[in-house]
Amino acid sequence: MLTQDAIGQAMHPYLELLQDHAATLPEALEALGAEIDLLHALALTPQDPSWHGEGDVAAHVSLVLSELEQVLAETDLALGGPERATLRLAALLHDIGKPLCTRSELREGGTRVVSPGHSGRGAAYLALRLPGLVEPPGASLYFDVLALVRRHHRPQSLVRSDAPARRFGRLGRAVDLRLLYLLCLADARGRVADDVAILVERVELFRLACEEARAWGGPERLAGFARGIAAALPDAAEEALERVLFEGLWDLDAGRIHTAEEAVARHAHHAGPSSRIWLTCGPSASGKSRWVQAHLGQLPVIELDRLREALTGRRGEQRDNARVLAAARDQLRQRLRRGEPTVWEATALRREQRLAVLETARRYGAHTTLVVFCAPAPELARRNRRRRDPVPDAVLERQLRVLEWPDENEAHRTLYVDGQGQVIRDSRASWRELLEDP
Fold first, then answer.
1. Distance CA 311, CA 57 (A)
2. Whole-model pTM?
């Protein structure tokens, strides 16, 4: 679960203002429009009148911001300034992905305006724009806003599908459910539609379901799970304990187990030595090679650019990726069979690309670390032009469009690295805190 630390001192003045001041779209356009250019596109992006009678996306966002202030005035939840700033920024940006994927299609016997996948697209877009506004980008504001934008549709879908309790618990490990509840309440009320009352009721049912699943108010359920595993494996090294914990959590999410004791029974064999795999994720010019050389330079590297150059004659050649990937996977399997530590250096922008590597490594019993690079998008373009072998501008632009921002539950451990090569977030720190005495 994400925690609310104090917001960093070096921050855009408008974001500091949000701790005590309501967000408005005109102010945001003036203050943030240069860095978050899609803010200007909200007024040009239509919405279906059946679901959004208020008009375009800008009209909806303005209503949501207004409703959020009313929600904050009414709530029984005690929120500090940083949490209010997080909520106001998330409300401002929750539909930022709509300009990227809004289209008309035939649905329900007529033409409807839809924006499929806009929450994920919006989070990925913001992941490489917000770092320019928050210094250091590891401040909790950055990660919490991404989590809220990415998952602001999840409460409605969980309630509508009558999801089991474990799904609410899993969501509670990825986002602060209190903030998600308040954002979704403002989102439901901030529209003109016949089903507003139904949407608001679903949000309230979401809160009740979270409370019943013991996911509301903090990571208590996960803390007990982690402590149970640690108590059963007192001599396990930190990395081994991490493997058992996350393998158990993935089983818990899938409904295969229900207790820490079951997790230990299924995965105690992971508490011994294992091979280790590091997978990089980030667009071209985000600093992957430099960081790998600085921190993992003694390890063998499967570098897709180098393989591409060996097979095609050009590092930037993108037309024979299938052959490059096949050669890389063959190398990976050989090293896994020998139990060798390995770095897989690639952009790995899509979730399916990352899981193909990570799940292969897990089948061989390896510990997996995902290293995510968060250099701001404008800096990527400048760096790319200075590279010895720059990728074409169109390729870099496409990479930014297809990026699927990683979850912290894709690997046993996840590191986030900023544009200066500093680790700004380590998922290991989160579960370490759970093992401390309450």
1. 47
2. 0.91
